[in-house]
């Protein structure tokens, strides 16, 4: 018997998916576990496997098209089986469900409309200005107010064009009269030769991807619902730079500055657990575990893979995991489970030459750390000698509903101390 394949919910926030490519065509044999199609969700491009066996009888969505969760994708059944009655039945059922939802929404709207509205004050129509004829020209219709205004402005009433009833000249005709326009008409027009425009206006419009839709929705909600405030601090990275060089001399995986930042943030969160929290509306969740999201730039926006239990992992472990997850993110191979559960997020734009920036909090976190580049700065030491030091600026964005200014400042102080003396992270 033929079976309908519907769009599954592939992530907790998914509302619709886009068919990137079909790996089977109508008439192909399908086994349980076979790859049917690739689906772009709001978080990644994922593989859709078949749980049915038989022949692919029908494909209802073209490549590049979007379909809502639970929408009809395809039908699998026996070779030559008539699937059309089943398809019609399923579509009719979908229509009935949609109609029921609309009727329910309509009833709710009717209840709202039934509420009595406050009475508005009655407005009396303004009395019309009486028409009078000019003493000099009985054929000219003009209101007394318009005549008086024209006389005061030195306007010849015969030059006015009436827009009132039956061509009557009224107040607005006097106010809108522009004598300069008449003079300009009689003046000789000077022709100015303008240079020809070089070039052509053009643009391209593309459909918003599922990932970009989700980024816009989540960060828009975060920015306009969470009261952000920002704390910026400078950190001396001389010892961190030296420590990184020493570690990379024997580490099996190359350790980056971002790995040091992540490890220091995890250690600082362990000492300031209230920063490692979430706003849940009627309560605050203080997380006892530390899962740090790392923002990774991809072509269509940002993905945030999560390093779980970051405070319990060594630098080599963190470096290897970050590299693996970043590679998956750029290839759109991240699974939903690898992007969920973050309790704190780090966004690093230092490698792009950015000295300092502020980041929007990544829900459900209460904070996000924006990391800038490392730059040399000339300073004078206590002996009066000039020397270069390496400085990195970081900015902590905080949700003021959860994290107070002093709380965020203490976290940054600890974070700074750990990076300025990296040996403390290893203790």
Characterization of the model:
The protein is α+β, with helices and mostly antiparallel strands and about 425 residues long. The protein has helices at about 85-115, 145-155, 170-175, 180-185, 210-225, 240-250, 255-270, 315-330, 405-420; strands at about 5, 15-20, 30, 35-40, 45-50, 55-60, 65-70, 70-75, 130-135, 140, 230-235, 275-280, 285, 290-295, 295-300, 300-305, 305, 345-350, 365-380, 385-400. Mean pLDDT is about 85; it is low at about 120-135 and about 180-185.
Using the CA coordinates, give the radius of gyration: 35 Å
Overall geometry comes to flat
For the largest sheet, list the strands in their spatial order. Answer: 11-20-19-18-14-17
Reported by name, the CATH topology of the largest domain is Chloramphenicol Acetyltransferase
Oligomer: single chain
Q: Give the CATH superfamily of the largest domain.
A: Chloramphenicol acetyltransferase-like domain
Largest sheet: 6 strands, mixed
Number of strands: 20
Task: Describe how the helices and strands are arranged.
Elements: E1 3-6, E2 16-22, E3 29-30, E4 35-40, E5 45-49, E6 54-59, E7 66-68, E8 72-77, H1 84-113, E9 132-133, E10 141-142, H2 144-153, H3 171-175, H4 179-186, H5 210-225, E11 228-236, H6 238-248, H7 257-271, E12 277-279, E13 284-286, E14 292-294, E15 296-298, E16 301-303, E17 306-307, H8 315-330, E18 344-348, E19 367-380, E20 386-399, H9 405-420
Parallel strand pairs: 14-18, 18-19
Antiparallel strand pairs: 1-8, 2-4, 2-7, 3-6, 4-5, 6-8, 9-10, 11-20, 12-13, 14-17, 15-16, 19-20
